[in-house]
């Protein structure tokens, strides 16, 4: 999700009350750092007694059902229709739903759904370090789909990042080869979906687009839950209080609050500042996993994760586009 309504904090400081607005924007970014970084912990806890695809479906269907009416009411205040993806005529509502369905499927159903599935056995910190590779897959997808040139520095970052991913994906003592591959596949899906999001029909309101992604992604996740037999295994009587709290956290702070703060930060802070969440989130996730779940990552895993984060920093430091939300 991107926004062209980005402005620097210096511009805010030139207006009355600009300092306060600047501080509120940085506070919003702080919420994004913590909330999105903590979702890996919440997913791991929710997975304990709720099947992963069903859990993710409830998360996004509920969040989308709350967000869509709010976004619709906000869009009614607009006096003119928004432009289409290429700056021309606005796409039809049906085309918008189709575009957001593709993005919601790639990002939320396959992307987040894959992570939710893998975290049944994979430590939340390791999952977050693998997902940190998303900007790398975005850069490759942008090269293939849009023909975007990758400078030498970008190729160095990609090679460095792939080396870090290889270290992270190395079979561990847990035998967690399959979940690692699932998370990598989910990260590739998120990267491809993020690039396609700029080419597909979308509503003018970023919040409306996000709500449509959540609703359509939630429907696909429901289908995955049905196909894998999860719906027949869901028993509310056996859902633990911890898993329920984890799901509620994912719906509230992890989706609705973080998304709102992300939109605020995009509109008030430089894009380079907002993009820092792509490499802050893994640090938050690893720290919370170690603190609350006693997750222990090997020195080799931590080194591989550090290499991936460093490569993402190198890749994003000169890019103007926004990485995807996690």
Low-confidence stretches: 1-17, 79-83, 320-326
The number of helical runs is 14
Distance between the termini: 11 Å
User: In total, how many beta strands?
Assistant: 0
Mean pLDDT comes to: 86
Number of domains: 1
Order of helices and strands: HHHHHHHHHHHHHH
How much helical structure, as a percent, in the residues? over 70%
* Strand fraction: under 5%
The major sheet is characterized as: none
Derived structural class = mainly alpha
Question: So what's the overall shape?
Answer: globular
What does the radius of gyration come to?
19 Å
Write a brief caption for the model.
The chain contains 14 helices and no strands.
Give structural notes.
This protein has about 325 residues and is mainly α. It has one domain. It is about 70% helix and about 0% strand. Helix 3 packs parallel to helix 11 and helix 7 runs antiparallel to helix 14. It is globular.
Helix-strand layout with pairing:
Layout: H1 9-13, H2 18-46, H3 52-75, H4 93-118, H5 124-131, H6 134-146, H7 152-169, H8 177-196, H9 206-227, H10 230-233, H11 241-268, H12 271-274, H13 277-292, H14 299-316
Helix pairs in contact: 2-5, 2-11, 2-13, 3-4, 3-9, 3-11, 4-8, 4-9, 5-13, 6-8, 7-14
Keyphrases for this structure?
mainly alpha, 14 helices, 72% helix, disordered N terminus, disordered C terminus
